[in-house]
Amino acid sequence: MVPRSLLHAFRLGREGLLDLLFPRLCLSCGLRTLAEDALFCLDCQSQLHPADMYRFPDNEVASRFRGRIELAAGAALYYYEKGTRLQQLMERLKYRGETNIGLSLGAYFGRLLVENEPFRSIEWLVPVPLHPKKQALRGYNQSAWIARGLSRSMGIPVREDLLVRTRETDSQTRKGRHERMQNMSAAFALTPLGRQMTAGHHIALVDDVLTTGATLESCALKFKEASPLCRLSMLTLGMTC
Q1: Which of 90, 111, 137, 204 gives 233 a disulfide partner, CB atoms 3.0 to 4.6 angstroms apart?
Q2: Domain match, 41 and 64 both
Q3: At what angle do helices 99-113 and 142-154 cross, to 10 degrees?
Q4: Which domain holds residue 198?
Q5: 29-38, 51-60, 96-105, 165-174 — which is least confidently predicted?
């Protein structure tokens, strides 16, 4: 029988070799992380603002849509502010092709969500679609990569065949909620398959950052128009305060 001390030394040696060959790097700054499953180094962790909304049904996401869209569940992973690590990560995800950010954060978020009952009944993850011209130019949809990360942890299929973006819209960055709603009016539509398959299902809309909620609300209304009985949830990586 091999002594336990020798087995322990072997495991430490193997982990040290793996860490040397495949170092665990911070998703934000690229420095090494200490914990095996950590996405961020300690410095970057201290500059992020986690939101534990997934623990509480009556949270900030639900409040933002109250009186307009009834949500089965909703949550954001972090609070979002300009000039923060999270903004830098979202810009890299959206504009620099670093899709691994969406995949990694989505998978981490999914591991948190599956621990809470309201999210376990979700049947489909539907990423907010880009207009075909914008997606062709960018080469990918960042929300779809977040949804794929969620899918990895939650075991829920991603459906990109139910909802489409029908027209390009102006930038939302400097618009208020009313202007955003006008800008997003008629920007989305369900596909024929989406109109057939929504009745009675629990669908989670997935986006990168929730600001006024105009984009997600426009998407949600299309599902509700087709099937008032469908259940809707909303999941985002960030949410503005």
Answers
A1: 204
A2: no
A3: 40
A4: 48-240
A5: 165-174
